[in-house]
Amino acid sequence: MSRLITYGDIHGCCSELAQLRQKIKPAKNDIEVCVGDVITRGKDSIKTLRYLQSHNIKSVLGNHEDKIVRYLQHQESIKENPIVLDEDEQDIVVNLNAEDISYLKNMPLFMRFEKITILHGGLQNRQNLNKISKKSRAQILRLRFLDQDHNFVTFGKEDDKSIFWADIYNGGQGFVVYGHQNFNEVKINQHALGIDTGCVYGGKLSAAIFQEIKDEKFSIESVNADVR
């Protein structure tokens, strides 16, 4: 029987990922998937990318990968690239090889395993993953908070009346495992599970392990950030 193993935002914390996998001990037939943002901010983005590829670990697209991919696509044009990279992102881009670029460009927006849906940011109840507009795609990558009318709130514009999306998500697109918003501990809602526990900020790297993809029962394993 295959387990579904889902990893929170790695952000270049490759040593912690290796430690976490040592705790979990994935079998050959287990399915391993990241919730996106596997690169940037941490010290080992390129090493992480190649570790994922060498261990056949999949990842959905995070907003940080999306920025890199869009930058690379614009570079193929003769027009000036409208996307400005920071120093860390520039360093990543110049060190990508063809296999790395292919891995990034082939990250899907979401992955489904029967009742379980893996994506990076979040979902509004009115969104259907089978009918995604360009605007909805961008929101799914970045969603954290909704306003009182359940509309997308741009990062930094949230206030005391804002609603975290998972607190009102109705399960219409499956049980969602997501990252993007970091928590001290995994965030458990009726129809969603947030597993970004802020490893790159000195927190933990966490994984949710589903013994069967036919139901929503899971266990959590974590390792502390390596602060050396």
Describe the structure.
InterPro entries: Ap4A_hydrolase, Calcineurin-like_PHP, Metallo-depent_PP-like. It comes from Bathymodiolus thermophilus thioautotrophic gill symbiont. Residues 6-184 form the Calcineurin-like phosphoesterase domain. This is Calcineurin-like phosphoesterase domain-containing protein. The structure is a single chain. With 228 residues, this protein is of the alpha/beta class. It has one domain (4-120, 176-224): Metallo-dependent phosphatases (Purple Acid Phosphatase, chain A, domain 2), CATH 3.60.21. 26% of the residues lie in helices and 21% in strands. The protein contains six helices and 13 strands. The protein has a five-stranded mixed beta sheet with strand order 3-2-1-12-13, with helices on one face. The longest helix has 13 residues, at 63-75. The N and C termini lie far apart (38 Å). The mean pLDDT is 96.
Question: What descriptive keywords fit this protein?
Answer:
alpha/beta, Calcineurin-like phosphoesterase domain-containing protein, Ap4A_hydrolase, Purple Acid Phosphatase, chain A, domain 2, 6 helices, phosphatase activity, globular, 228 residues, Metallo-depent_PP-like, 26% helix
Concise description?
The chain is α/β, with parallel strands linked by helices. Helices cover 26% and strands 21% of the residues. A 5-stranded mixed beta sheet has the order 3-2-1-12-13, covered by helices on one side. A 5-stranded mixed beta sheet has the order 4-5-9-11-10, with no helix packed on it.
